[in-house]
Amino acid sequence: MAKTKSIEVQVDPAEVGFDADRLDLIGKHFRQYVDDAKLPGINILVSRGGKVAYREMYGHRDLELGTGVESDTIYRFYSMTKPVTSLAAMQLYERGLFQLKDPISKWLPEFSDARVFCGGDAQKPETREPKREINIHDLLTHMSGLTYDFHVAHPVDEIYRKNGFNWGTPGDLEESCKILASLPLLFDPGTEWNYSYSTDVLGRIIEVISGDSLDTYFHNNVFLPLGMHETGFQVLSEDVSRFASNYVPNPSNSRLHLLDDASKSRYLKPPRVLSGGGGLVSTMTDYYRFVDALRRGGTLDGQRIIGRKTLEYMTSNHLPRGADLTEHGRALFSETAYDGVGFGLGFSVVVDPCKANILCQKGEYGWGGAASTAFWVDPVEDIAVIFLTQLMPSSTYPLRPELKALVYQALE
């Protein structure tokens, strides 16, 4: 695999309006997480105006081997795949190949007979016809009525698990979508927000509309234009030594428990399902190229991957009546806080920093991944931040709000 051209040249923080001593508090804080065996390692980047003001790499990519975090370490990005899939879909929208209100049954006819759960239990669910079909906007905003199997709050979640959705899909992308279409919806499309397999279904629609497999479409239309040569759905054999292992807390002792050994990981083989909701692996350098293209309004090194106005539209709050997720979403796990945070087309969007109770900026957008990775872009302060580690679940520690406070307190 070709190496990605680095754009991580670091400048004097004062040049871009940061206090260097205060930025150093980021490393001090998160190195303690590593020293306390709460995280295996950290890889942090803070940029402003397209110039990297801060980098921190500390700890291990593999605790058992004692190998350290390096600039080219490969990570599981899980749900940080979702913004890539959402942007890829909107590229097709820009070409006039669909409208956001189009029902998804136009390309996936199995969804034309979807039903809504209205009573009973997982063994004997009662269902009814939805008030309308799922449309593409519903998928982009997680207002489709679909759910995730790892939610444990509703009979529909249990129905997903009974049908083979257990932290993954029971078949390839096409098969999985057909199974999803046969299961009850949690609610009428467009009426609520619920973190779900929506983006995976969106990935299948990209395949049908474009005529390409999802990995081929990503490569030709996102990764190749941006020079992201180390991002994909599989870790190649020559890159295994750079792949980080994945961990979970170990309640019985102070050491982290190995969840996915990098040398034996399923990511070393071609995936059965190309998950637009969580399947990508990548590096800091690669993903920073994607994030910096977002910060620049959809372009990098003369290559435009999305229109400026399209991206502005995607990073606006699309929840009805300008609501936040507390008002419009179900109180279940997702990769963002709910208070003061809305949702766009594939991104969380801060709508009220005071209500969020987090030091952040109105209009800031981003997302995170299940292994505690995260990114955000602040268009007002012209800041982009990426945090990488490999610890599941991402709700284990308040890493994201802590990082936000540490970044913003360092602004001059």
Explain what the structure shows.
The structure is a single chain. The chain is α+β, with helices and mostly antiparallel strands and 412 residues long. Helices cover 28% and strands 17% of the residues. The two termini are 41 Å apart. The mean pLDDT is 96.
Keywords:
412 residues, alpha+beta, Beta-lactamase, Methane Monooxygenase Hydroxylase, Chain G, domain 1, 2 domains, eight-stranded antiparallel sheet, two-stranded antiparallel sheet, 12 helices, 16 strands, 28% helix, 17% strand, globular
CATH class of the largest domain equals Alpha Beta
Q: Which superfamily, in CATH terms, is the homologous superfamily of the largest domain?
A: DD-peptidase/beta-lactamase superfamily
Order of helices and strands: HEEEEHEEHHHHHEEEHEEHHEEHEEEH
- Name the strands of the widest sheet in spatial order: 3-2-1-16-15-14-13-12
Question: Into which percent range does the helicity of residues fall?
Answer: 25-40%
Quick check: average pLDDT? 96
What Rg do the Cα atoms give? 20 Å
Overall form: globular
| Total of DSSP H or I helical runs spanning 4+ residues | 12
Q: Approximately how much beta-strand content do the residues carry?
A: 15-25%
Using the coordinates shown, work out and report the CATH topology of the largest domain: Beta-lactamase
- The number of strands is 16
* Alpha-beta content class: alpha+beta
